[in-house]
Specification:
By secondary structure, this protein is α+β, with helices and mostly antiparallel strands. The chain has a single domain, classed as Deoxyribonuclease I, Chain A (4-Layer Sandwich), CATH 3.60.10. The chain has 7 helices and 14 strands. The strands form 3 sheets. Strands 3-4-2-1-14-13 form a 6-stranded mixed beta sheet. Helix 3 runs parallel beside helix 5. The longest helix has 22 residues. Its cofactor is Mg(2+); Mn(2+). Pfam families: Exo_endo_phos. One of its GO terms (molecular function) is double-stranded DNA 3'-5' DNA exonuclease activity. InterPro entries: AP_endonuc_1, Endo/exonu/phosph_ase_sf, Endo/exonuclease/phosphatase, ExoIII-like.
Length: 262
Amino acid sequence: MPGKIRVASFNINGIKARLPRLLEWLEETRPSVACLQEIKTQDEGFPAAEFEKIGYGAIWHGQKGFNGVAMLADGQQPVEVQRGLAGDPEDLHSRYLEADVFGLRVAGIYLPNGNPVPGPKFDYKLRWMERLRARMAEIAAEELPAIVTGDFNVIPEDKDVWSPKAMEADALMQPESRDAYARLLADGWTDAIDTLNPRGGVWTFWDYQAGAWQRDHGFRIDHALLSPELADRLIAAGVDKEYRGREKASDHTPVWVDLRVE
């Protein structure tokens, strides 16, 4: 095993539509673990064989037409711990997948968007964040080297968006969303990308509309939170920005953290 492990997250925005792009990224960057969001496919339609061909084991939690999360591991099969969050038996969305892999506890998440504000979708977002916090507290109590990564649909601070004014009415930037995210950090989790880029200006999402990519009108909503046991093993964290500029790209770009192997 190499001296470091790379755990990455990629909101692929439709795994079937963007499979060539996804395989290209996996082969070019070779993350040890890749958490995927918005796979937008039912379980039986997940292209596991395509990942096996290039050496990745996979688990997935699909849903017809939207949402859906998956986890890939290079040369390993992730050992599933939990799918979905406790606390709301009526919530049937596929948004959470947790597994043990490479000696780490890895949780991949696709947090609700929450628009329009106010409304039931925003209320659902905030409830989901409370349920996530409860699960993260359980993981923390086990004192595991753990990472929770994915599309959080929260712009944590004004430095994380090209124009705070342009996004001020959006669910991603509401004080309640930001407060819920800040509570996760206050519980002892480390925002890896922010820690290594304290001045901000790092984007992970550019809308398809209004030439957002060409004008670099982006924001940071894809995050990687590390438990105290893992935070001191952080080597590097970043964004694979160039993949947003490729043909038929997702509107998100991959984010990753490099962690020292103990």
